[in-house]
Write a structure and sequence with these properties.
The protein has 3 helices and 7 strands; from the N terminus they run E-H-E-E-E-E-E-E-H-H. It is of the alpha+beta class. The longest helix has 21 residues.
């Protein structure tokens, strides 16, 4: 098994509470998630509370979008934790953390994902590290989050 960590950050010119609202509610992710445009026919479902701990989001789409689910497992003013479970194109469970730090120009957002790659993905990671596979997606998502939170 290969452990990995992907981390990206950006400064958003908005209050931490505004940024928090876009992350803490999966319904808001359609406005900024880097994966929302992978499949125009993406099937989404929501369960649990509207936002915060226990909120759940499931998706199923084409080969690019895959299928899986997320659940908010912790939610505080400065940090949101998400359990991310992929079903397709491969099975994996990862931990995602968004850390929000007030800075002079707004909020520094740090998006971190950690996990382990087993089987075929463990082998692929030797050639194509997870950071290289999803790092650009995190950058795209943070740029979109910045755009919607600053609007």
């Amino acid at each position: 098994m290969a452990e990995f960590e992907v981390v990206r950050q950006a400064v958003v010119s908005a209050a931490p509470s505004r940024v928090h609202a876009y992350i803490n509610d999966f319904h808001e992710w359609t406005k900024w998630s880097p994966w929302e445009d992978l499949d125009p026919q993406l099937q989404r479902s929501y369960a649990g509370p509207e936002s915060g701990v226990g909120a759940k989001y499931s998706w199923s789409g084409n080969r690019k979008a895959g299928a899986g689910r997320m659940e908010i497992v912790s939610s505080a003013d400065r940090e949101i934790g998400v359990r991310l479970e992929f079903e397709k194109p491969w099975k994996a469970v990862n931990q995602v953390t968004f850390t929000l730090t007030p800075v002079r120009d707004g909020t520094e957002v740090v998006w971190k994902m950690t996990g382990r790659q087993a089987g075929l993905m463990g082998l692929i990671s030797k050639v194509m590290p997870m950071d290289k596979m999803v790092g650009k997606d995190f950058e795209k998502g943070l740029a979109r989050l910045k755009s919607v939170a600053e609007a």
